[in-house]
Amino acid sequence: MFAKPTPGFTTAAATGDTVVLLIGMRINRFWAVHQWFPMLLAMFRMLHELGRQPERGLRGKVLLTASPRTYYAVQYWESEEKLYAYATAPDAFHHRVWKIANNKLKKGSMRGHVGLWHEAYVVPEGGYESVYFDMPPFGLAGASGVLPVESRGRSARQRLAFRSAPEGAGPAATPSGRSDTSDTSGRSDTSGTSDAPNASE
């Protein structure tokens, strides 16, 4: 809430596959507090557990609401393997919650009162890009770090074309073919281009 904005245009420092999980709940019947409120508390408890155990693989999160009924979290994970390892780990709180939820579903006590959902995406490098202006680290940048936008390209097309160098192969090549050695202050040779990166090209 009180994070300091990073001046100017920046982009996320993510490399390789980006694993994103959207997970949440919908209150179908507000009066059924005894059904949906425990699920809401469980969501926060799982996030607290993951925050205390970074080795589980959660790199960052954003909490959102789509309506007064729908609440969800956007989660960024280190890998697909760590995401599913947590989901099935017998010692994790998630395992206990789903056991309780499945028992309620079998009995029919929760049906119609609260909706549960998730969507998982494994996006390869070249399938995502980002740009932020005067923003603190947020979203993918909050999970992976912040870079001057010039280090990945001034346009969305250039940022999508960026590929990180294989381990031990030296600096990554930017879309223009130059090594990724941009000044971390965000200054670079942008003669002949506008100050604002093109987010739609």
Structure overview:
- By secondary structure, the chain is α+β, with helices and mostly antiparallel strands.
- 28% of the residues lie in helices and 25% in strands.
- It has helices at 33-52, 80-88, 93-107, 139-144, 156-161, and strands at 6-12, 18-27, 58-65, 70-77, 114-123, 132-135, 146-148.
- 21% of the residues are buried.
- Residues 177-195 have low confidence and may be disordered.
Which helices and strands appear, and what pairs or packs with what?
Elements: E1 6-12, E2 18-27, H1 33-52, E3 58-65, E4 70-77, H2 80-88, H3 93-107, E5 114-123, E6 132-135, H4 139-144, E7 146-148, H5 156-161
Antiparallel strand pairs: 1-6, 1-7, 2-4, 2-5, 3-4
Number of helices: 5
- pLDDT under 50 segments (min length 5)? 177-195
| Overall morphology | elongated
Q: In whole angstroms, how far apart are the ends?
A: 32 Å
List the secondary-structure elements in sequence, H or E: EEHEEHHEEHEH
- Major β-sheet annotation: 4 strands, antiparallel
Helix % is 25-40%
From the alpha-carbon coordinates, what is the Rg to the nearest angstrom? 20 Å
Report the portion of residues in β strands: 15-25%
The assigned structural class equals alpha+beta
Give the strand order of the largest sheet, numbering strands 1, 2, ... along the chain: 3-4-2-5
Mean pLDDT: 86
